[in-house]
Write a structure and sequence with these properties.
By secondary structure, the protein is mostly beta strands. It contains two helices and 21 strands. It is globular and about 70 Å long.
């Protein structure tokens, strides 16, 4: 059955059953004790880049990914501007169900969007986007099993941006996981999770033995919230010359929160540590060293480690922060200002003090300024200017490089109801 037929069948079922009065949008499934809710939206995003941007926005990420911005003095940086791109690929659809059972209510969430890499497809094809899985999990009491946002992500401290990705300080990772959340006092929770690690999904030398272990302590109230998080990761790497696989272990953390100031909101986050590359969007683009200089050997490196000439794993330390402020002008109009920076420590080879190469970004800065207008109860318009710049490490032979982003983004967003 095609996706369109599944969608049509679900809509027909929703129209045929009455809504649960106390929760609009939730329907009782005939002949069962279960309820179902449909979620999602249709969205059109338009970006206009006045300086360099990622070269392959169909096959890669079209939203802000600062490490992918070309160097200012490259052909893409100097000659390809301005550039326009329009897409509806972030539109999404989801369902949620709830079923009372002897062991407690069993909840389910299934959601996807069309923002998967297009490969060789483009606007010339009638099917120019790829459906991808976002959330797929079930809950029983305090236990969650399935795929959803990583426990390392604090959505409550994420800035309000028009750009789909926002600042690169965020851990925009959805992992398969087993997570247990316990309420320890009014307003306070502790979540413990075992999440899928990044192994050698695309080949390469890295492989997965243990999951990533997460802990998240959150306390909140009407004033806002505070979240303290930690993650452990194990890295396993095999080299052709090794008798046994190399192993490294890392511990990284984050602290974040929000504060209500009248009708406005302030959010902030700081995160960092060795090997944290996978949980910092900007660090994913860090170009790190492998002895054979073969990118295919990275095996899911994600800017988190390098390999010394002797085959040892050397973790790359990175840290980042962001601050965002939301001002509400009227119930229909709000504006945001966001500032973020990411720093990557000098990745030296085997502690010799020799810089690897000049393409490793040493620091990145980003700024977003936007306004949202809710012109209907289920629709809004957003307009944003974003600036970003990365700078590289320099070598004795090559000076510091930099890449600059100047982008205007507009979005028109329609919720289903």
């Amino acid at each position: 059955m095609t996706l369109s037929k599944i969608f049509a069948a679900l809509v027909a079922m929703a129209l045929a059953v009455p809504a649960v009065a106390e929760d609009p949008g939730v329907f009782k499934i005939p002949g069962t004790d279960s309820t179902i809710k449909f979620t999602g939206y249709v969205q059109l995003d338009t970006t206009l880049d006045f300086s360099g941007r990622v070269g392959n926005i169909e096959g890669l990420d079209w939203a802000t990914f600062l490490p992918g911005v070309p160097a200012d003095d490259s052909v893409d940086g100097k000659r390809k501007n301005p550039q326009l791109y329009m897409t509806a690929r972030t539109s999404r659809f989801g369902i949620q169900t709830n079923t009372p059972t002897k062991v407690g209510a069993v909840g389910l969430r299934l959601e996807g969007d069309f923002n998967g890499p297009n490969g060789d497809q483009s606007e010339t094809y009638t099917n120019s986007v790829v459906f991808r899985l976002r959330h797929a999990y079930g809950t029983v009491g305090n236990l969650l099993v399935g795929q959803t946002w990583s426990t390392f992500l604090d959505l409550g401290a994420a800035p309000d941006t028009v750009d789909f990705n926002g600042p690169g300080s965020l851990a925009l990772v959805r992992n398969p996981m087993v997570r247990y959340t316990l309420k320890i006092m009014p307003g306070a929770t502790v979540a413990i999770a075992a999440e899928n690690a990044r192994g050698a999904q695309f080949g390469g030398a890295k492989f997965q033995t243990l999951p990533d272990f997460h802990a998240n302590v959150t306390y909140g109230g009407k004033w806002g919230h505070v979240s303290l998080r930690g993650v452990t990761q194990q890295y396993n790497l095999v080299q052709a010359t090794d008798v046994a696989a190399k192993t490294a272990f890392s511990v990284a953390g984050a602290v974040s929160g929000s504060a209500k100031i009248g009708g406005d909101t302030l959010v902030a986050q700081f995160s960092g540590g060795p090997g944290i590359g996978r949980y910092l969007l900007n660090a994913l683009g860090a170009n790190v060293f492998f002895p054979d200089d073969d990118p295919s050997n990275q095996g899911g490196n994600a800017g988190a480690f390098q390999v010394a000439p002797n085959g040892d794993i050397e973790l790359v330390t990175a840290y980042a922060y962001h601050v965002g402020f939301t001002h509400v002008w009227t119930p229909q109009l709000r504006s945001n200002a966001v500032w973020s920076q990411t720093f990557i420590e000098d990745p030296k080879v085997a502690g010799t003090g020799t810089q690897i190469d000049n393409l490793v970004e040493k620091e990145m800065m980003q700024a977003f300024v936007n306004t949202f207008w809710s012109f209907a109860k289920n629709a809004e318009l957003g307009l944003e200017y974003s600036y970003g710049q990365w700078k590289s490490f320099a070598t004795a032979a090559v000076p510091e490089l930099k890449g600059t982003q100047n982008r205007v983004t507009a979005t028109v967003h329609y919720n289903f109801f």
